[in-house]
Amino acid sequence: MLRNVRSFSLPSFAVLWVVAFAIAANPPQVSAQTTSKSAHAPVTFSPSIWGTVTDNHGAPLGGAKVTLLNEKTNESTGGSTDGTGQYHFENLLPGKYTVSFDASGFISKQHQVNLKPGTKKIEVNERLKPPPEPEPKAS
Fold first, then answer.
1. What integer is the mean pLDDT of 88-105?
2. What is the DSSP string of 68-125?
3. 126-127 and 48-54: which strand pairing?
4. Statement: residue 27 has pLDDT above 50
5. Is residue 129 classed as helix, strand or coil in its secondary structure?
């Protein structure tokens, strides 16, 4: 059984080789950029309050209760510090807040914070102290 085999002449093979070499040496430029004005929405920052709670020696207090009270709306939210003593409250509205810190075996404390419009974040760190030891009774 004979098959019809097409053969290339030397000139047509040379032309094919030159075209292939030209494409390989200078590939077409492909762009992944779009023509839209902006691919990203503008970044906006909402105010946040964050910080670290430590004991009187400066060691982080994990599990300390931190409560945030909005003075205008009287709404509060709370949480606990992580293992490094850190906490954060995000997406807050400008206004006056009270930040309360509580931990078992320590004296509770509060801070007043005023988030002004345009404020990005306020750091409120707190060092809690144990209650004073009672004085021994005289005998």
1. 96
2. EEETTT--EEEEE--TTSEEEE-SPPSEEEEEEEE-TTS--EEEEEEE-TT--EEE--
3. parallel
4. no
5. coil
Domain boundaries, the chain: 48-127
What span, in angstroms and rounded, lies between the C-alpha atoms of 112 and 51? 14
The pLDDT tens digits of the residues spanning 41-89 come to 444 567 899 999 999 999 999 999 999 999 999 999 999 999 999 999 9
Element (H, E) at 23: helix 10-25
Of 8 and 68, the structure prediction assigns the larger pLDDT to 68
- pTM listed for this prediction: 0.64
Sheet strand arrangement including 65-70 = 76-80, 65-70, 95-102, 109-115
For residue 84, give every residue at least 6 positions away whose Cβ sits within 8 Å of its Cβ, in sequence order, or none: 52, 60, 62
What's the whole-number mean pLDDT along residues 20-33?
45
CATH of 48-127, one of 2.60.120.10, 2.60.40.10, 1.10.10.10, 2.170.120.12: 2.60.40.10
14: tokens are 């040379």
CA angle 84–85–91, rounded 5-degree value: 110
